[in-house]
Design goal:
Blueprint lengths: L1 E5 L3 E6 L15 H12 L9 E2 L8 E7 L2 H12 L4 E9 L1 E2 L5 E2 L6 E10 L4 E5 L7 E12 L3 E8 L6 H8 L23 E9 L6 E5 L6 H6 L7
Parallel strand pairs: 4-12
Antiparallel strand pairs: 1-2, 2-4, 3-4, 5-11, 5-12, 6-7, 8-9, 8-10, 10-11, 12-13
């Protein structure tokens, strides 16, 4: 577990792909338990440790997760997430799009907007994107731009305007750019480690208690493609 930021009220960690944020039916040990144990040992807490889960990341996704260390912080963070006051920036690796004649269609470095209506299928744990409103559909909006290109892949920066189930995965697939490794949404092959090439790269918000601005970035995965596509200054 990698702690990126911590104080008396919040702790931000860099989740690895494959980790679950909160306990589920798999019975696998969740990241929340690992963080609780870290706090208990570091601060020699004698009793139960409070840790609030304010948001989640899909299991195959890596990047920043914000936890609350106090009930006051959790209540305020829940409200901030619900009202869009926590700004999360994602990076995703997608295949370079091809035009019919075989030439690459560039996704430019200007911001573009995607709008869909998403319908969630609970049994499949999957969302479906439509261009028009349908029963039980929720409107989904995101903005994206290209940060870099290689011969076969493009690194996108994505900002969510809404928070829907599998939103980035579903919407990028709907525009013909399934995230690398994301078999559920149409990628042709999986990543060797079972991850998908999507990470929560940056989080920005006003601290729920101190009111100080918080801006935190996650380090890039130690992966050849991530490192190759990363803009200068992001490589570590």
């Amino acid at each position: 577990m990698e702690v990126i930021y911590e104080d008396n009220h919040i702790i931000i960690v860099n989740k690895q792909s494959g980790e679950i944020v909160q306990g589920d039916k798999t019975g696998d040990r969740p990241l929340s338990d690992i963080v609780k144990n870290y706090i208990k040992e570091k601060y020699q807490k004698p009793g139960a440790v409070f840790l609030g889960v304010a948001h989640r990341l899909d299991r195959p996704v890596s990047g920043l997760v914000v936890f609350a260390r106090t009930s006051k912080a959790l209540t305020r963070l829940n409200k901030m997430f619900a009202e869009g006051e926590v700004h999360k920036t994602y990076w995703a690796i997608v295949p370079s799009r091809k035009e019919e004649e075989g030439k690459r269609k560039e996704i430019t470095d200007e911001w573009h907007t995607l709008e869909h209506w998403l319908v969630r299928n609970e049994k499949q744990n999957k969302s479906y994107a439509y261009d028009h409103e349908r029963p039980n559909a929720k409107k989904a909006i995101l903005k994206y731009r290209a940060l870099s290109h290689s011969d076969h892949y493009t690194l996108l920066e994505v900002n969510l305007m809404t928070g829907r189930h599998h939103q980035i995965r579903c919407q990028l697939a709907a525009m013909g750019c399934p995230i690398k490794g994301d078999l559920k949404y149409g990628a042709p092959r999986s990543n060797p480690d079972g991850s998908i090439s999507l990470m929560a790269r940056r989080v920005e918000f006003i601290h729920p208690v101190s009111k100080a601005p918080i801006v935190v970035e996650a380090p890039l995965p130690h992966d050849t493609l991530w490192q190759a596509l990363a803009p200068e200054g992001a490589k570590k």
